[in-house]
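Lab notebook: predicted structure, single chain.

Context: the supervisor wants predicted structures on file for every construct in the current expression panel, including those that have not yet been purified. This is the next one on the list. No modifications to the sequence; it matches the entry in the shared construct table.
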Amino acid sequence: DEEIEYTRRVEFDGVWYEVTTTLGCEENDELMVEVEAEESGERWTGCFSSSYIESLTSKTGNYKRASTFARMVVSAVEGSAESVYVDLLTSSDLEALRRRREAAPPVVVNGNLKNTKHSTRRYLIVTYAVEFDKVHYPLPLDVESDPSLLSLKRQVKRA
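Prediction complete. Output recorded below exactly as produced.
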């Protein structure tokens, strides 16, 4: 099998990003997601195995095979399907949503709001919304401090 790569320019909260999804990376059954802020050059990446994806989707109560989920992510990034879309959230955004959903007050430690463990992490939230259901699939992306050779080649190609 060969790698299939999709790159799209996507706007999240007024900021433009290059979102690249690669199907069939590494062990040929993985999904790679890379997000780069156009203005700052900050990058976040995640590589997800089929078993990780199937476990994630199973936990939501709306199981998807890894290949189906990968096509959902590509459709969401492309904006080609009305029922699936993406958003990019910080750890604190995700925590605020969780608190709001649970109606829980923020956790305060020594007079400060609790600092989330992964403050540099971003989450690509894939949302699948149909008539009576809405399911969120969070894909954690870690900050990329040392870009890979492939990342650098993409940056040069876009410039």
